[in-house]
Automatic annotation (TrEMBL):
Biological process according to GO: glycolytic process; tricarboxylic acid cycle
Functional note: 2-oxoglutarate dehydrogenase (E1-like) component of the 2-oxoglutarate dehydrogenase multienzyme complex (OGDHC) which mediates the decarboxylation of alpha-ketoglutarate in the tricarboxylic acid cycle. The OGDHC complex catalyzes the overall conversion of 2-oxoglutarate to succinyl-CoA and CO(2) while reducing NAD(+) to NADH. The OGDHC complex is mainly active in the mitochondrion. Involved in the inhibition of cell proliferation and in apoptosis.
Catalytic activity: N(6)-[(R)-lipoyl]-L-lysyl-[protein] + 2-oxoglutarate + H(+) = N(6)-[(R)-S(8)-succinyldihydrolipoyl]-L-lysyl-[protein] + CO2
Source organism, top-level taxon: Eukaryota
The keyword Metal-binding is assigned to this record: yes
Keywords associated with the record: Calcium, Glycolysis, Isopeptide bond, Magnesium, Metal-binding, Mitochondrion, Nucleus, Oxidoreductase, Thiamine pyrophosphate, Transit peptide, Ubl conjugation
Species for this entry: Strix occidentalis caurina
Localization, UniProt: Mitochondrion matrix; Nucleus
Name used for this protein in its record: 2-oxoglutarate dehydrogenase complex component E1
Length: 978
């Protein structure tokens, strides 16, 4: 009871006395008015014979009866119980709050927890003993130790003085441990044992020499760069050189535990050092990037050296095991790479069948200000234990500079530590003084063991300093004069540790100097070789190579795309599975029964709606061995209750069925998973997942297309320019529900104008290409489509995999068209020989007599159905042609040129339901004019410019729509303007 109680010790004291009373009663004694008497029945004594005089004072204790002893000892019982409870409470106080007293700041001037006051229940002087009802006379008393501490080692009791000393050694030196918020007793006991056991933090002389050698490499690498390129930005590691041995320790221990693939993400500080001394990137490749005359050999813009990634497989010399290390490339947007790393890690685990994270793991590095300030950190932590997103534990290493650029931590966060966000997932947090290399290495060993044992996240907080400013060209004295005066006096950690080992006799001065000279020579030789590098090959810096994908039988793959159609037998089979429940004794909802019945009828009629077309695209790719992963908020059912890829038994809790996984005997697996309510984190995760393999279709669906804007950083920094910056192809698909149905400004627009503005095709140049459709796709940075038919949606999904390369695909998916009776496609549009239609020409009376057509309406997506309905109502089928642009980027110059030439007398009008300053108009207009060589004007029919994407008033919405239609079909509307 005492060992497990969380109650204050005084209340525990009351309860304990009550329990002692019960124990006494059960032993045959009870207390009455301060006396203890026997409750055992005995013969009644005769009057006058019951009294016995007390024994003389000289009587020894051993001659007293048990009852007599208890009577005499009773006055001391309360004090004895209270003292033992006080000691147990004292031990617990150190376990909970000892980190607040730990000596964490290497500079000795700052409080890592932003609080200079000391906890009242930590014994920092003998005066504090009074808090527990103890005094100096109790220091030499021996107290029994509870089982919730390991400070005794093999001893079960210790004097109070020694108890306090050992607690201080465990919790108040250069390591501060936060773990008592964890609600798992086994995990807490595991951590206690690692930090409380006397003498546990011991290193052999060989281990100390290895640590020194790693510090030499870390320190001398930065010094070498400073000597050679003193005026170049490199975001060096000075002040936290211990990061290199820290990371190598985590990797060594993890390799020892069976890990053979480590995926890392980190900001720019120390990145070059990590590439050189952890990943083992060739030094000449790093040094040559400082040459301002270096030319780029590969396509794209490239990126600065401290943003690039790396993939390398090598022998771990400590464990003699092969290990693969990947450092993910990332932009300056701090912490944006976190979910990307997690997604890539999850994918690698998935593809090698590592269901417990024993072979593949991730390490994330953070800055202190970013860890506290960037919300994506919280979003990523909340993915850590979700079944479809867990990577079974990540080791987080925080390089805690105690400053953010120029911002004091007291102005940068409200929490005591920058790492407090990790507490939400019960991750233990190990704060450590970065100027104590042995403490750092010990903590990193424990962190790696924790991850291997419990497969949960853990945080190592390296409390350090930044010797230079934000970069090597910055002047930190402007804003932190006192801190940097102290830093200028601070002896580097390598020098301090070398002096310690020399004083211990572990190494001597000549050995130390020889180690330095040996690494300096390596750097000089690499520098000499780097001068021969005249061309920068970004491909040498790939973090996710796809061996074998870009070649076929040793030759580059052909720039062609086969038909994306499917034979009718497969279409029918997939349709039948999609409209059934392939599991026996499975009760589905009555409403779902009707949906499945409707699907079955469509299959009999050889037609598909949007959901069934998606089903057939997915199912056919699964047959071909392509893994499919669909993720996002409510994607299992679909936001609009149209998909239903996961069926739920109405009578058995948590019993589900995924019919898509019952299509073929040896099919690839289908993963469909509802995500947490995060766009930034989840899209980053899926992007990382798509990086791992080209032979997978990875899709992220926004609940509404509007909501992608909270993931804008991933779109802007990774998806749009990823290939240009890092020569890294990625085939991720974004499904963004879009359409103006009068649902208000937050549920209408996926902001197509933003995606189109970021397309890299030139609006003023008509491309001259062979294999126009495929070659144009190869040259673009991403593909943007707005399909108007289920068949075209089917084809574009299949094309995404059948192309000989990978590009991100942005699809503006519909809402009302999911159930629109005219938004149906025939099997005939999906059979072998068919393919994705970049443009769908008018197929009605207008196309039969093109010379009579007075106006061609170019449009995309849902508005087509509004236009055809209005054209029919006005009986203008022969006067107005409607051409659908299904693929917006890259722009179908060739097909639209054909359409414009087909109607020589017609006006050209771009029609859209979005407002004029939004949607597609600004993108389409210059490209259409280039297509027709500016022979005619391109008019606009649509809503007026507006600040909001849509009105929230239904009547206003309908009025705007009617005005749009009136403009589109009023053949005199543009005469005055002309």
């Amino acid at each position: 009871y005492l060992e497990g109680s969380l109650l204050p010790w005084r209340e525990g004291n009351k309860l304990l006395k009550t329990r002692l009373g019960l124990i006494a009663q059960s032993s045959g004694f009870k207390s009455q008015a301060g006396r203890v008497v026997s409750s055992v029945s005995c013969p009644k004594a005769a009057p006058g014979t019951a009294y016995q005089s007390p024994p003389p004072l000289s009587t020894s204790l051993s001659t007293l009866s048990q009852a007599q002893f208890l009577v005499q000892a009773q006055p001391n019982v309360d004090k004895l119980v209270e003292d033992h409870l006080a000691v147990q409470s004292l031990i617990r106080a150190y376990q909970i709050r000892g980190h607040h007293v730990a000596q964490l700041d290497p500079l000795g001037i700052l409080d890592a927890d932003l609080d200079s006051s000391l906890p009242a229940d930590i014994i920092t002087s003998t005066d504090k003993l009074g808090f527990y009802g103890l005094d100096e006379s109790d220091l030499d008393k021996v107290f029994h130790l509870p089982t919730t501490t390991f400070i005794g080692g093999n001893e079960s009791a210790l004097p109070l003085r020694e108890i306090i000393r050992r607690l201080e050694m465990a919790y108040c030196q250069h390591i501060g441990v936060e773990f008592m918020f964890i609600n798992d007793l086994e995990q807490c006991q595991w951590i206690r044992q690692k930090f409380e056991t006397p003498g546990i933090m011991q290193f052999t002389n060989e281990e100390k020499r290895t640590l020194l050698a790693r510090l030499v490499r870390s320190t001398r690498f930065e010094e070498f760069l400073h000597r050679k390129w003193s005026s170049e930005k490199r975001f060096g590691l000075e002040g936290c050189e211990v990061l290199i041995p820290a990371l190598k320790t985590i990797i060594d221990k993890s390799s020892e535990k069976g890990v053979d693939y480590v995926i890392m993400g980190m900001p720019h500080r120390g990145r070059l050092n990590v590439l050189a001394n952890v990943i083992r990137k060739e030094l000449e490749q790093i040094f040559c990037q400082f040459d301002s005359k270096l030319e780029a050999a590969d396509e794209g813009s490239g990126d600065v050296k401290y943003h690039l990634g790396m993939y390398h497989r090598r022998i771990n010399r400590v464990t003699d095991r092969n290990i693969t290390l990947s450092l993910v490339a990332n932009p300056s947007h701090l912490e944006a790479a976190d979910p990307v790393v997690q997604g890539k890690t999850k994918a690698e685990q998935f593809y090698c069948g590592d269901t417990e994270g024993k072979k593949v793991m991730s390490i994330l590095l953070h800055g202190d200000a970013a860890f506290a300030g960037q919300g994506i950190v919280y979003e990523t932590f909340h993915l850590s234990d979700l079944p479809s997103y867990t990577t079974h534990g990540t080791v987080h290493v925080v390089v805690n500079n105690q400053i953010g650029f120029t911002t004091d931590p007291r102005m940068a966060r409200s929490s005591p530590y920058p790492t407090d966000v990790a507490r939400v997932v019960n991750a233990p947090i190990f704060h450590v003084n970065a100027d104590d290399p042995e403490a750092v290495v010990y903590v990193c060993n424990v962190a790696a063991e924790w991850r291997s044992t419990f497969h949960k996240d853990v945080v190592v907080d390296l409390v350090c300093y930044r010797r230079n400013g934000h970069n090597e060209m910055d002047e930190p004295m402007f804003t932190q004069p006192l801190m940097y005066k102290q830093i200028r006096k601070q002896k580097p950690v390598l020098q301090k540790y070398a002096e310690l080992l020399i004083s211990q006799g572990v190494v001597n001065q000549p050995e130390y100097e020889e180690e330095i000279a040996k690494y300096d020579k390596i750097c000089e030789e690499a520098h000499a070789r780097s001068k021969d590098e005249k061309i920068l090959h970004i491909k040498h810096w790939l973090d996710s190579p796809w061996p074998g994908f870009f070649t076929l039988d040793g030759q580059p793959r052909s720039m062609t795309c086969p038909s994306t159609g499917l034979n009718e037998e497969d279409l029918t089979h997939i349709g039948q599975v999609a409209s059934s429940v392939p599991v026996e004794d499975f009760t589905i909802h009555g409403g779902l029964s009707r949906i499945l019945k409707t699907r079955g009828e469509m299959v009999k009629n050889r037609t598909v709606d949007w959901a069934l077309a998606e089903y057939m695209a997915f199912g056919s790719l699964l047959k071909e061995g392509i893994h499919i992963r669909l993720s996002g908020q409510d994607v299992e059912r679909g936001t609009f209750s149209h998909r239903h890829h996961v069926l739920h038994d109405q009578n058995v809790d948590k019993r589900t069925c995924i019919p898509m996984n019952h299509l073929w005997p040896n099919q690839a697996p289908y993963t469909v998973c509802n995500s947490s309510l995060s766009e930034y984190g989840v899209l980053g995760f899926e992007l990382g997942f798509a990086m791992a393999s080209p032979n997978a279709l990875v899709l992220w669906e926004a609940q509404f297309g509007d909501f992608h804007n909270t993931a804008q950083c991933i779109i802007d920094q990774f998806i749009c320019p990823g290939q240009a910056k890092w020569v890294r192809q990625n085939g991720i698909v974004l499904l963004l529900p879009h359409g103006m149905e009068g649902m208000g400004p937050e549920h209408s627009s996926a902001r197509p104008e933003r995606f189109l503005q970021m397309c890299n095709d030139d609006p003023d140049v008509f491309p001259k290409l062979d294999d126009f459709d495929v070659r144009q796709l190869y040259d673009c940075n991403w593909i943007v489509v707005n399909c108007s038919t289920p068949a075209n949606f089917f084809h574009v999904l299949r094309r995404q995999i059948l192309l000989p390369f990978r590009k991100p695909l942005i699809i503006f998916t519909p809402k009302s068209l999911l159930r629109h009776p005219e938004a149906r496609s025939s099997f005939d549009d999906m059979l072998p020989g068919t393919h994705f239609l970049r443009v769908i020409p008018d197929g009605g009376p207008a196309a039969q007599s093109p010379e009579r057509v007075k106006r061609v309406l170019f449009c995309t997506g849902k508005v087509y159905y509004d236009l055809t309905r209005e054209r029919k109502a006005r009986q203008m089928e022969a006067d107005v042609a409607i051409t659908r642009v299904e693929q917006l980027s890259p722009f179908p110059f060739d097909l639209l040129q054909r359409e414009a030439q087909k109607y020589p007398a017609a006006e050209l009008v771009w029609c859209q339901e979005e407002h004029k300053n939004q949607g597609y108009y600004d993108y389409v207009k210059p490209r259409l004019r280039t297509t027709i060589n500016r022979a005619k004007p391109v008019w606009y029919a649509g809503r007026e410019p507006a600040a909001a994407p849509a009105t929230g008033n239904k009547k206003t919405h309908l009025t705007e729509l009617q005005r749009l239609l009136d403009t589109a079909f009023n053949l005199d509307a543009f005469k005055d303007l002309a």
